[in-house]
Design goal:
Order of helices and strands: HEEEEEEEEEE
Distance between the termini: 30 Å
Helix content: 10-25%
Number of helices: 1
Strand content: over 45%
């Protein structure tokens, strides 16, 4: 019965993701924005989950959670805003869904809804004994946009106790100075 509930939950997530994607494509096609394929979040919180199969009986699950906008009023009369995006990437066995390795990245964007935006990141790696997921995090900041970019490399331990390359992936999350969030991932 528990498995049935999990399957139903995954179906609901897929339906929700499809509806959100459809709504965003309508919003994006009707705007003058150049953020093609971007996810815009006004001040709602939410979660999106997708998966992608790889060779060697491995499936990658990527869950993206985003917080509502938080306002901070400062003594000098200015206001700054924050949004947090958390990305959890898990590599699992396709047949048993046993977690092989995973990594969680947290990105906190701070902006002023005019011309200022920054990004801070945190990362939590959980490597299993036979698999190793190596994330490489970079932050690119420009005047009105900040991007957190993560490149993942998955390795498996061989009989010589060294690691062989299995797969790679990436995700880029950007935030504009007005608080629009965009996502580019090899899983989505």
């Amino acid at each position: 019965m528990q498995l049935l509930k999990g399957v139903e939950f995954m179906k609901l997530i897929k339906i929700f993701s499809f509806v959100v994607s459809l709504m965003l494509s309508v919003i994006i096609s009707g705007s003058n924005s150049i953020m093609v394929g971007a996810t815009t979040n006004s001040c709602e919180e939410g979660m999106t989950c997708k998966s992608k199969s790889f060779n060697n009986n491995i499936v990658c699950f990527e869950t993206i959670m985003y917080s509502p906008e938080i306002s901070t009023f400062h003594q000098d009369g200015t206001t700054t805003y924050k949004k947090k995006v958390t990305i959890k990437r898990e590599y699992k066995r396709a047949d048993t869904l046993e977690i092989l390795t995973d990594c969680t990245v947290g990105l906190t964007f701070k902006y002023d809804k005019d011309s200022f935006v920054t990004c801070k990141c945190s990362m939590l790696e959980k490597n299993k004994k036979n698999y190793y997921l190596k994330p490489l995090m970079e932050i690119f900041s420009e005047e009105k946009i900040s991007t957190g970019s993560v490149k993942y490399n998955l390795y498996q331990k061989n009989i010589l106790e060294s690691y062989d390359y299995i797969a790679d992936g990436h995700i880029d999350v950007f935030c504009s100075s007005v608080g629009d969030i965009g996502i580019n991932s090899n899983i989505f």
